[in-house]
Amino acid sequence: MSGVTVRRGSTALLADVDWAVELDERWVVLGPNGAGKTTMLKLAGAEMHPTAGIVGILDETLGRTDVFELRPRIGFSSAATAQRVPTDEVVRDVVVSAGYSVMGRWREEYDDLDTDRALELLELLGVAHLAERTFGTLSEGERKRVVIARAMMTDPELLLLDEPAAGLDLGGREDLVARLAALAMDPDAPASVLVTHHVEEIPPGFTHALLLREGAVVAQGLLDDVLTEDNLSKTFDQDLELTRSGDRYFARRRVTS
Ligand SMILES: Nc1ncnc2c1ncn2[C@@H]1O[C@H](COP(=O)(O)OP(=O)(O)OP(=O)(O)O)[C@@H](O)[C@H]1O
């Protein structure tokens, strides 16, 4: 993204953002509610065009390319994608149908290779045992994993995850963080961007961070350089204490006595 601004009426959702993600990088985009994180992800996913500036994705430039050809190269998982899945769709088909760019349409026959790949991804996300269930019968955490598996079905070159751990219980969050960490450390995994509000949800293996506040970048770069108490406090407009334990981060408001 170069000089990217997104306006709605007189409000700038994003203001003059410069950002580059290389293919071997795993980024976390962190910021408070309303900071513009989802807007950034929608731009990166070719789901939205900027009001000004240039968005280049996988060697294509938004506005000069057919987004319908670009989108299958990008895996996008968000609460909105989960909501679009029909509740009566069988979990295995939710995943396998991504390869055919359909949602909610059950084909008579899928290729065996595709079905195997879908089951492999469900296994990777720890939900293979739910393959024959209908999507509507799953818990929120289970749905999240299925939608991530779906996002990976097309072997995307770019994987975008919008708040994958939101709404999960502690065990579910920890399990998902571990699975995303394994993915981040796989050299064959695609370039990834994960949006979150919580430093606790940053999977080990993620390399870079971008901190966003009110549509503007507070800091961006290597995770260890960017994730400081100072930057985090500016981003969330609070005096925050940040601790690192092994390869995980934890934050809370500073208690002054
Ligand atoms: N069409 C629109 N018109 C006006 N304002 C909008 C529009 N779409 C989004 N916004 C506003 O833009 C801001 C950024 O939204 P965005 O969804 O990108 O934030 P976010 O950082 O993902 O927030 P959250 O963490 O709450 O999901 C919000 O204040 C939102 O209300």
Structural topology:
Layout: E1 2-8, E2 11-17, E3 26-30, H1 37-44, E4 52-54, E5 56-57, E6 60-61, H2 67-70, E7 74-77, H3 79-83, H4 91-96, H5 112-124, H6 140-152, E8 158-162, H7 170-184, E9 191-196, E10 208-213, E11 216-222, H8 223-226, H9 229-236, E12 240-245, E13 248-253
Parallel strand pairs: 3-9, 3-10, 7-8, 8-9
Antiparallel strand pairs: 1-2, 1-4, 5-6, 10-11, 12-13
The structure holds adenosine-5'-triphosphate (ATP).
Task: Walk me through this protein's architecture.
InterPro entries: AAA+_ATPase (IPR003593), ABC_transporter-like_ATP-bd (IPR003439), P-loop_NTPase (IPR027417). One of its GO terms (molecular function) is ATP hydrolysis activity. This is ATP-binding cassette domain-containing protein. With 257 residues, the chain is of the alpha/beta class. Helices cover 30% and strands 26% of the residues. It has one domain (4-222): 3-Layer(aba) Sandwich (Rossmann fold). It is built from 9 helices and 13 strands. A hairpin with a 2-residue loop joins strand 10 and strand 11 (216-222). The termini are far apart. The chain binds adenosine-5'-triphosphate.
